[in-house]
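About this split. The held-out portion is used to measure sequence recovery: a designer receives only the structure tokens and must propose an amino acid at every position. Recovery is the fraction of positions where the proposal matches the reference. Here is one held-out target exactly as it appears in the evaluation file.
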């Protein structure tokens, strides 16, 4: 299988927190961030600093 992204992130958005997963090869790191502007910027800096250039949000189910 062809690798499309060597380093990528996933974000699960809740009301008061973000749960962020960073995958790099076989290594996985999970962190939690609050939803203030400062914390969102910190999350973005962590992802960019780790070499992540692609992240996605967990889709929301609507019934």
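Reference sequence for scoring:
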């Amino acid at each position: 299988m062809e690798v499309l992204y060597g380093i990528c992130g996933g974000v699960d958005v809740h009301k008061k927190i973000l749960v962020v997963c960073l995958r790099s090869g076989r290594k996985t790191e999970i962190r939690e961030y609050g939803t203030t502007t400062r914390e969102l910027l910190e999350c973005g800096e962590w992802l960019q600093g780790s070499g992540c250039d692609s992240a996605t949000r967990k889709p929301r189910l609507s019934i």
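Annotator remark: The mean pLDDT is 90.
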